[in-house]
Amino acid sequence: MPTRHSPDVVIIGAGVVGAACAYYAARSGLTVAVVDRGPVAGGTTGAGEGNLLVSDKEAGPELDLALLSTRLWRELSAALPPETEYEPKG
Ligand SMILES: Cc1cc2nc3c(=O)[nH]c(=O)nc-3n(C[C@H](O)[C@H](O)[C@H](O)COP(=O)(O)OP(=O)(O)OC[C@H]3O[C@@H](n4cnc5c(N)ncnc54)[C@H](O)[C@@H]3O)c2cc1C
Prior knowledge:
Helix content: 25-40%
Strand content: 5-15%
Bound molecules: flavin-adenine dinucleotide
Low-confidence stretches: none
Mean pLDDT: 93
């Protein structure tokens, strides 16, 4: 009798948010499937300028998240392939 293998997590959307969720879910040991109606980064992500801004955030939850995000990006830049562009601007 055939067995069905379902992923632990199904993520709809292969933009930067879905990709980040998929990356961290997979890194924590979950099996992940990412589905999208179009190409990877074919939505808003493909238009992004790639800036990781903290200076435009007011004190509060958004700034807290931005600071956490910049820390994660720094860690990621060390783990991702060398052709990944990451340029800290201070
Ligand atoms: C011109 C421009 C410049 C920007 N510059 C920056 C910047 O410098 N720094 C910054 O932090 N942010 C920037 N942003 C914002 C940033 O690009 C977005 O916040 C981010 O890309 C959103 O990512 P996302 O994964 O949520 O959405 P998306 O990248 O849009 O991904 C969503 C995905 O879900 C898929 N999808 C949606 N509905 C379905 C469905 N029903 N079934 C299957 N698939 C589905 C879509 O096809 C798409 O691929 C910029 C935005 C624009 C427009």
